[in-house]
Specification:
With 146 residues, this protein is mostly beta strands. 6% of the residues lie in helices and 14% in strands. The termini are far apart.
Amino acid sequence: MLITYSRPGTIGHDADPDAPAADLDPTGATCDASTYDVGGAPWRCTRRPGHSATNDPDDEHRAAFERGGDGPAGAVAFAWQYEHGGAGYGPSSSEPVHTVTVTVRFPESAGTGALADRIAADVLSNFWECDHDHVRVDVTSSTAAA
């Protein structure tokens, strides 16, 4: 994740001329992508749905203040994107080009907690959250007679 804007905490409810446009949907519908900033605060994208579609290279997500928030309603508080230069222009691609094969063999006594779905989740956790839709992890399990 690349943080592209973070509202200065020193300006209160004043307008920030450096803030990106909120790009809110008039119906109130939102993209709803979410992330966390470096301090661990959660953020949810309030931009219109579909702003980061494949045919729209603008994958910057923006979280705007709501009425009664810590800043002016509708002003962007935090913005982020997943790829340098926008969707489809970053260092990643949705086309699979790498395959990694790992074989794990262990005795029954060592198999406590070694569940296929946990192994798949552990492998997936090694990739950026924006790439999870493009990473395929297939885990099969078999038991041989001792």
